[in-house]
């Protein structure tokens, strides 16, 4: 790990900062100054392995370019093959092949088409009432935890809400939510470049267990499908029309379940911290609840739950004025693009009425644009409004604890006081 860390920096100042963004815990705690520095250096900053983009124009254009593929879907040149082999040895995790996030072109279109209907605006609208009921239930639990002397917003609410919604949608047992959250947290480490060895071991173990469970569950669904759930539809489409082979089926199911909560928990936690730190914005929302939808996008923009993604270039091309060459890896720092001052005025300011807040790239763009964007927005709005309606005097009870993950940005503990 140490060799990799310093081998990447290549001695240039920008390269050093680029490497620190990925590896230095202090920069991970607050990466935004580093992003700004890098955006000012060059449109593409190399750390020796990856060229990273930090401006909105370039990040958006690379995501939409037909000349790039996802990293998981990329067959690296021989020189890099050793490195990538070091990374994934165990069973495929939620973002490795054959997950949607690691498949491109026609295979990707085929797989995405099967699930897209379940996440349409209409499908999401139908889930709102049920999500409100889940929120109300979980708030009872939060209150009970508070009465016992320790309410934790992440543990008791922000994680459970999206986990319950996605488990019900898929037809996965909701009484396994805590187990799903545990596996998801382990799998999340595998997104980070240069993770430390104990995290690597934990992620491999959790991914293996998660995969084994999902394989068994798919078999149970095959024998005894619950009509109207996504997994029952997936199994039927695969068995009757050959839509997905078994490995693909398990991969898609794992991604849907993990993506369904692993990011939204961060959005809810990040938004709570932003709102509690800014009573004027909160007061404005109380008076004008019609801004809630935009407030969720503003939180996504300012504290993006997925800070970065990457693509591999498959043929020489020019994108937004930059020359890219076949075989290059391009880091796309979504969270930096979302603070690009050329697109967002006074970008570090939290402004729930910002006119173009939704122009953020927090859900990525192009063919892999987040399938659950509408669902996540709805869940966050429901979760935040229900929380602040029930507990108008909600306050942090000590500093929240940041997750150590770097690609995913959020909190893993947030003690709160429910009443003033
Ligand atoms: C893809 C972010 C919630 C399902 C993505 C990507 C991002 C993202 C950035 C694309 C990564 C890339 O381009 O490389 C988020 C954020 C969320 C969220 C910030 C919450 C705040 C959800 C939810 C689901 C979901 C609730 C529901 C299952 C997916 C799926 C993909 C995806 C299936 C892969 C799509 C594809 O490759 O075609 N998400 N996501 N996401 N997301 Fe989300």
UniProtKB/TrEMBL annotation:
Top-level taxon: Bacteria
Record InterPro entries: Cyt_P450, Cyt_P450_B, Cyt_P450_CS, Cyt_P450_sf
GO MF terms, alphabetically ordered: cholest-4-en-3-one 26-monooxygenase activity; heme binding; iron ion binding; steroid hydroxylase activity
Keywords: Heme, Iron, Metal-binding, Monooxygenase, Oxidoreductase
Pfam families assigned to the protein according to its UniProt record, in alphabetical order: p450 (PF00067)
Keyword Oxidoreductase: yes
A biological process term (GO) from this entry: cholesterol catabolic process
Family: Belongs to the cytochrome P450 family.
Protein name: Cytochrome P450
